[in-house]
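Hey, quick one: can you model this chain's 3D structure?
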Amino acid sequence: MKKQKTSEIIIHCSFKFIVLLCSSFIVLFSSFAFSLPQEMCIYYGQATDQFGWPYMNGADVILKSGTNEIVRHTITGSISPGMNFALYVSLDDGFSATPYSDKALREGDPIEIIVRDARGEQSIMQTNIPPVGAAGDVILVNVTASTDTDGDGLSDAWEQEILNDSTNPAIATIEDIKPGDDYDGDGASNWQEFMSGNFAFLDYDYFFIEKVTSLDTRFKFEMLSVPGKAYSVASRTNLISGSWIKCPFSATENGVASVGLIEGDGDWLSFYVDKPVGTKYFSLKVQ
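Sure thing. Here's the predicted structure for all 287 residues.
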């Protein structure tokens, strides 16, 4: 009987020792917990200079958290039409107090995007840059390397060109230049000209189809492009109402027509669209 009791006591004590050992291991593991990387969050878009022209080279787009540079993209041409930068942000899972890397951020962290070009480090006009997204998020952000003091969507540098040209006493400061006005009277608003990469103080410089040619089975539209700007074709059957719908086109006379974008190079661009059955209106779009 004593041996049996002794055995029971020994077994009981051994069980307590195992439980104590496991508890100690859990405490020890928790004290040495570490964070792990997650799938990246990506910011992408088009960076333009102070006049609304896309950078083709000679500029870096930089994403920062406070004073810490997280990632940068050196622009060497377009990645695809309408896109010249992509910023891949490393994400931390937030498991510990310290991220696994000083270049890793966490979902919800505020960030800043700046541009460095030949003028030096430039702030951007846009003030609503989204915070870091969740793992796998892809966020579109187009940025303009300039200031916009009056917050009207027109860069101060672009508006200054109008001030330099104007002899109208009613246009004395950049606040006097309104996005909806048409300074040069060419039919395009100041905002439309800025967004298309044109200048509002030149009445011959605006976005429009300069020539239309009727071919056997297609129409050919021609226009003078802005380097790095992306163009597409839209159509609708009613000029008064209805939505413009993306229209297939080809960049060559006998090419296969498809919906998409074509990038400007500063030279003439041609758009070939199939002739419709019935009435159809066409429009060129720029972004």
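One thing worth noting: The first strand starts at residue 37 and ends at 45.
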